[in-house]
Amino acid sequence: MSKKMMTTGFALAGVLALAACSDAPAADDGDANAQEQSAEAGAESPEAGAEQPEMPEADTSDIPEVVAEVNGEELSGEDFTVLYESQFQQMAMQSQISGEEPDQDQLKEQTLESMIGNELLLQDAEDEGYEASSEEIEAIISDAAENVGMESSEEFIEAYEDQGMDEEQLRQDAESQVLINQVLDDLEVPEPSEDELRELYDEAVAAQEDAPSPEGAEGAEEAEMPSFEEARDDLETQATDEARNEAAVAHVDDLRSDAEVTTNL
C-alpha cells in the first residue's frame, strides 16, 4: 500500500477538498447578490479603492527529494510540497486580511511534523492489524465531496483528476486515513467531569459578556445564553473533542519516542 500522505494534522478530507476548490460549484444567485451588496458597502468605505497587498507566494525552492525518514519509510518532497502549498494558500488568504506575512519556515516545520505524525499513526495501524473496508474508504471521499459542496464522490473524483491527480492515489490516501482514524478512535478518552463542563460553560458566558456589541445594534436585544443544562450536550461534545485531540497528540509523541526519525528539511 502506498504511504504517500497528503494529510494535514489528522484530517485527510480537508486537504483533499483543496484539490477541488477551483472546480467547486459556482455561487448561486443568493451568494452573488450577497457579494454585490458587500461590494457596494465596500465602495462606501473610506478605504475603498486602497491597493490590496500582493498575494505572497510559497517558496519551495529548498525542498529536498526526501524530507524525512520514519522507521526507514521515506517521506517525499513531492508530497510535502503538495501539502505545504495547500496550507500556505490558506495562510496567504488570511494574510490579505491581517496584512501579516506568513512565516514560511514555521509553516514548513508544522507541515513536516504533520506528515511525520501521520506516518507514525499509519505504521501503528498496520502493526496492530487494522483494515479499511471499501465502505469506509468511500465515506472519507464522500465527506470530502460534501465539504466543498459537491453532490457525489464521482463529481469530487473528477475534479480531483482535473487537478492532474490520480483516483487510485486518492483512494489509497483515503484508505490510509481510515486506518489512522481507527487508531485514534481506539484511544482511551475519559468522560468529562462536572467541574470541566462547568468551567467550559463559565468561559462561554464570560466570552459572551466581553464580546463587543455589533455596530449599529444599539438597543438590540442580546442573544440569550442557554442555561448550563440546556448547553450540557454541546459542552460534553466540546470537552470530549478536546480530550481526544490531546490523546492523539500524546499518542504520536509516544510513537515518536520509540521511532527512528530523520529530517532533511
TrEMBL record:
Its EC number is 5.2.1.8. The keyword Isomerase applies. GO terms for molecular function: peptidyl-prolyl cis-trans isomerase activity. Keywords: Isomerase, Signal. Residues 25-70, 203-265 are annotated as: Disordered. Residues 32-53 have a biased composition (Low complexity). SUPFAM superfamilies: Triger factor/SurA peptide-binding domain-like. It comes from the Bacteria. The keyword Hydrolase does not apply. Pfam families: SurA_N_3. Residues 241-259 have a biased composition (Basic and acidic residues). Residues 1-26 form the signal peptide. It is an enzyme of class 5 (isomerase). This is Peptidyl-prolyl cis-trans isomerase SurA. It comes from Nesterenkonia sandarakina.
